Amino acid sequence: MARTAPRSATVERVTNETQIKVTLELDAPAGGVVATGHGFLDHMLEQLVRHGAFALSVEGRGDLHIDVHHLAEDTGITLGQAFARALGDKTGIARYADAFMPMDETLAHAVLDFSGRPWISFEPNGFEGSAGGFNVHHLRELLRGFCNHAGVTMHVRVLSGVEVHHVCEAVVKAWARALHEATRVVSDTLPSTKGTL
Questions:
Q1: Residues 162, 105: contact at Cβ < 8 Å?
Q2: Full 3-state SS string of the chain
Q3: What are the entry keywords (predicted)?
Q4: Residue range 66-90: average pLDDT?
Q5: Strand partners, 46
Q6: C-alpha–C-alpha distance, residues 146 and 140, integer Å
Q7: Residue 3: pLDDT over 60
Q8: Above 60 in pLDDT, residue 23?
């Protein structure tokens, strides 16, 4: 299967609330620099790199004196833009994937489709509390930003769980594994009967 260009992108987002730079190489070995200024968000992004098995660097800062909300949302937006650019017209990709991820008492399931139609189904009510000031509602904003700007439909289910750290981490690891599988090149054709995604 021929590939005409590297599947990579660098995207910067600068607002009055955040400054973020994402560099993505889908076909490079896992690795990269993660430094957003928020420890738990960094921990989640490190899981994305390791379990997504691609090269990803995320560097940024945000108005953490207010909340981590803006940083999480804008990181998701920038990640989504990087994936959209790196995938181009999406010719040859698997497009669909899902992954289950256990973590102690927690079991998460992520299903995604690089459809071009943004949608996130994830209602985290019932898992209150935070890990390092980061909670499941911040995670939803990270995923929502990603889906809106990558053109991804994603459904996340937490099938069991109690501890918020475990819930967030299992969801991110499931997202990472599904991302890896959905973005693999498996053919020379566009995975759609419409002729576009």
A1: yes
A2: CCCCCCCEEEEEEECCCEEEEEEEECCCCCECCEECCCHHHHHHHHHHHHHHCCEEEEEEEECCCCCCHHHHHHHHHHHHHHHHHHHCCCCCECCEEEEEEEECCEEEEEEEECCCCCEEECCCCCCCCCECCECHHHHHHHHHHHHHHHCCEEEEEEEECCCHHHHHHHHHHHHHHHHHHHCCECCCCCCCCCCCC
A3: Amino-acid biosynthesis, Cytoplasm, Histidine biosynthesis, Lyase
A4: 98
A5: none
A6: 10
A7: no
A8: yes
Residue recorded with tokens 């992004």 = 45
Q: Are 120 and 150 in contact (CB under 8 A)?
A: no
Tokens of 100: 């289950």
Cα 168 to Cα 8, 68, 76, 113, 145, distances in angstroms: 27, 15, 15, 21, 16
Decide if 87 contacts 94 (C-beta within 8 A): no
Residue 116 amino acid letter: G
- Residue 115: other Cβ atoms inside 10 A: 17
Partnered with residue 128 across adjacent β-strands are: none
Class of domain 8-182: alpha beta
d(CA 34, CA 50): 11
| 8 A C-beta contact, residue 104 and residue 170 | no
pTM over 0.70: yes
What pLDDT is stored for residue 4 in this prediction? 59
Q: Report how far residue 181's alpha carbon sits from residue 111's, in angstroms, rounded to the nearest whole number.
A: 11
Amino acid symbol at 103: M
